[in-house]
Amino acid sequence: MTAANFIYLGVFLCALLAVTPLLGRWLAAVLRGDTPVWLRWLQPIERGIYRLGGVQENTDMTWRSYAVALIIFNLLGGAAVLALQLAQAHLPLNPQQFAAVPLGVAVNTAVSFLTNTNWQAYSGEASLSYLTQMAGLGVQNFLSAATGLAVMAALARGLSRKSARGLGNFWADLVRSTLYVLVPLSFVFAIVLVAQGVVMSFSPYSTATTLAGTEQVIPLGPAASQIAIKQLGTNGGGFFGLNSAHPFENPTPLSNFLQILAILALPAGCVHAYGLLVGAKRHAWVVYGVMFAFFITALSLALWSEYGSPGAATLAMEGKETRFGVTPSILWSTATTVASNGSVNAMHSSLSPLAGGLALFNMLLGEIIFGGIGSGLYGMVMVIVLTVFLAGLMVGRTPEYLGKKIESFEVRMAALAVLLPCIAVLIGCAVSFASASASAAVGNAGPHALSEILYAWGSMTNNNGSAFGSLTATGEVYTWGGSVAMLLGRFGVIIPVLALAGRLASKKTVPISSGTFPTDGGLFALLLAGVIILVAALTYFPSLALGPVLEHLLMTAGRTF
Asked: Could you report the per-residue pLDDT of 421-445, keeping only the tens digit for each?
């Protein structure tokens, strides 16, 4: 690595640290119902939405009614995306006259976008009309991200309220998150992207003549608006099949830098907002520090592997865009897999075995290192609950978290939220290897084949959406089985989180005593990090050892796959 690479990374990390409290305060204010002064002109729109939907925004919902509203709304959104794909041949804004999407791929795509996964079993410019991309995928990019913020807000209320039955109003949380955070940020960011050269057009595809005299189709479309929310909302689904490696999505080094920052900005801000919402800012910074340490460690090891692998001088650029280079590509692969984003600017299958394995490991941790917008924070809180439970066992007293006693119900819900995605990943891998068609879909042999399949199921179940790129994921096991995995990975976590929040809201606050385990110090940070590693190691160590670790050892012996 050169001095320029270290400066690049330093500027990025400083920028991330700088935007964290700014976005955190913004998010906390919106989720408390305090509209920022500069956005109060949008309040009539908010009230109009409530009237149109017949919503009483001040009505408090129990955790069950909150969960029912959330699930029904998201499933209806998925149904709308499915309908648009199946009917797009008869709808406007389809200048290329694309036919209906095959049913299996259409269902997988609808589930993918309603769960904030954005797993792409399709190539956007080759199969989806402008209307489907905008009214279907683009709208879900906003709503799935807002859903994550709503659940985070409900969890924060469960911890901060005393002897209460309600967790707030899902509809108000959804509307405010979308109207006052996601839309303004995406609007500004889309303008910046257009200035950098990202396409924004409703014209039909163009045809150009190459220097060799052949014709080449130049895909166009209203991409900039979708790219903005795909990054800010940790969605990741690209307008084009090549995702952020495509020059029309990510044309310049500056657009690349800004998009990586956008991937992590709101998830990082969610941690600060959580501290403000529950009245525990120091605890939030400790959690942020744990996340930041995992991120830096994964990034450092991935860079070391990529630059230090045999033949790195000639092979390091394999699968990467020359306009970006190695360091920005590795920074992106780390950011997109810790943040549950899933967009890619390089071929992850071409990364060195350990760099690709670290991207895989980031997802298998449960997407809690920053994670998805809102979802990363509430996923981390589930691990925190398990951590304080273990700490309570060590000192022989009932564990407490932010003044609330953690009892058997809370531990069961936290364990369910943490372990259910793990079970789905391992079962999905087993089914893939048992199925001849699914195992034949891999693009490589040996341990790399295991890494491909494990990466796919880890990505779908943990709502990331990225892929090694060498796996053909259009078969029935991956489309239909992947749809089930994505639903389990999303709602199988959200429902336990809301149930836990509802139980905590009904409890009284316990005064801090000499026996209370503090959650705002270095000892707690070390214990939390240890639990994170322990859960991942016990679950996935055999698979990782037979996949990327074995491939690395074989590569050092001169054998590649």
From this structure: 999 999 999 999 999 989 888 888 8
Counting residues of the chain whose pLDDT is more than 70, the rounded percentage is: 99
| H or E stretch covering 84 | helix 63-87
The neighbour count for residue 389, using CB atoms within 10 Å, is 21
- 488-516 tens-digit pLDDT: 999 999 999 999 999 999 999 888 777 77
Phi, psi at residue 216, to the nearest 5°?
Answer: -130, 130
Using DSSP's 3-state secondary structure scheme, residue 346 falls into strand
Q: Which two three-digit tokens encode residue 228?
A: 């903005």
Characterize 162-190 residue by residue with b for buried, 16 or more Cβ atoms within 10 angstroms of its Cβ, and e for exposed.
Answer: eebebbbbbbbbbbbbbbbbbbebbeebb
State the residue for tokens 């069961």.
412
Region at 59 (left for phi over 0; alpha for psi -120 to 50; beta for the rest): beta
Q: Which residues are paired to 207 by β-bridges?
A: 217
How many residues belong to the chain?
Answer: 561
Q: How many CB atoms neighbour CB 54 within 10 A?
A: 7
Residue 19 half-sphere exposure toward CB, CA atoms < 13 A: 18
